[in-house]
Amino acid sequence: xxxxxxxxxxxxxxxxxxxxxxxxxxxxxxxxxxxxxxxxxxxxxxxxxxxxxxxxxxxxxxxxxxxxxxxxxxxxxxxxxxxxxxxxxxxxxxxxxxxxxxxxxxxxxxxxxxxxxxxxxxxxxxxxxxxxxxxxxxxxxxxxxxxxxxxxxxxxxxxxxxxxxxxxxxxxxxxxxxxxxxxxxxxxxxxxxxxxxxxxxxxxxxxxxxxxxxxxxxxxxxxxxxxxxxxxxxxxxxxxxxxxxxxxxxxxxxxxxxxxxxxxxxxxxxxxxxxxxxxxxxxxxxxxxxxxxxxxxxxxxxxxxxxxxxxxxxxxxxxxxxxxxxxxxxxxxxxxxxxxxxxxxxxxxxxxxxxxxxxxxxxxxxxxxxxxxxxxxxxxxxxxxxxxxxxxxxxxxxxxxxxxxxxxxxxxxxxxxxxxxxxxxxxxxxxxxxxxxxxxxxxxxxxxxxxxxxxxxxxxxxxxxxxxxxxxxxxxxxxxxxxxxxxxxxxxxxxxxxxxxxxxxxxxxxxxxxxxxxxxxxxxxxxxxxxxxxxxxxxxxxxxxxxxxxxxxxxxxxxxxxxxxxxxxxxxxxxxxxxxxx
Length: 582
Hints:
Number of helices: 12
Strand content: 15-25%
Pfam families: Glyco_hydro_76
InterPro entries: 6-hairpin_glycosidase_sf, Glyco_hydro_76, MUG_Protein
Organism: Kutzneria albida DSM 43870
Keywords: Hydrolase, Signal
Shape: globular
GO biological process, one term: carbohydrate metabolic process
């Protein structure tokens, strides 16, 4: 057949908002990485209307063949399972003597806004007709509609809902499939399952799943890896036969274990379109490091794509305001030297997991940039916090020790990075930032004295982590002894630990930066505890405390003590997840 692409503009009154996931709507089908046909061809007065899908990129397009001049084809996309839809997407008409044409490609999913779409191809050839909707069922390890009698396990994550003596209960199995059951019911009672991709805020494509008058529904998936939708929430609902009122349980996110539960809740906030967790630049580097730690611990490969996606999308340049207040100048560099160094550690972690050399190479590029701000002309050494050289502080120099020692431990035959790591550690340890109590203050004054600034947990953790990595590089037990002093000070001082629980001084009103500090501490304290066998009870206590803050959606709070108020967002999630991984 001969094909021409002719995109006709739809009225602005009906034009849908452009969706961007891996790519944006209206991508050329010639760029598709795959071509599949998930539903049958619609034959319309001898014409063939087909739905084409690129599953690798989550995009679809429509075509019409065996047609004549002005026959047209378009794509419909629905966000509520086919009840309503954005129509005439990419509408194209056969021109001239051509016998076929096709639309441009449109996204089937919108994980950035927690929406799951279905699509169909439609044509007008002396009458309008459409294919079936594609992907109305969600498939993970198993697909929607599986018999609950085949469940692999049975747990009830939230209390049952009650109504007129009935108990409507939510059940999940070990594969993330969920169903509803009723106890104490009567003939004619109804049960169903609701499913939401935005933590229960809405459920347009998941309302009344499996509605039945039987004692239980079929099972439904709570993850949609094809659509990059993780951590789907479900609730069980029912209606008594003698009334019109219904009752539902709380929303819950099924998960097999605490680490998986916390990881999926973190993944649910990742934005594939922009390749980060909006909208914090350095926090996203730390969140990626935490995600990588989790994948290494659990062996989960289903979320590894986030590592490549983050690298691919964010390696370039961004003007001020897109990734933070500063421009990003390529290779994750900015005027904030500490922000840049966090990405160096993130890519070293990615290399450890994947053995993909490009991540190690990127860490070297970043470290070369950071090392350019080491300056012996002020305070005898140390890396400046910013390009303007206004401050020498603990976070930047703790990062530098860790980064240089870690590079040495991953580059065979290296001597240069080891020399830098030794020099950096000696300078940090003797800079005065570590006070007589073994606690790390924030930085130095202009006269190179300890400024008495807040003892933040992440500064303490980075000093411990830098020492542990240097000990791995050198075997120098005096460095490990210093790490033990720092760990002991953190575990016993009320500046960081209250009633046995790691506590940031800003709680409960920490800003978006400080929400993630404790996770950095937990990561490196945990490394020390595993390496030495010391303070394992303390590390375990933090894990238990962090997990105890969860709600039914496995969201974890800022305050591991559990006190209210207890803010929750993806930063507190990443922080608490790191504690679970000790």
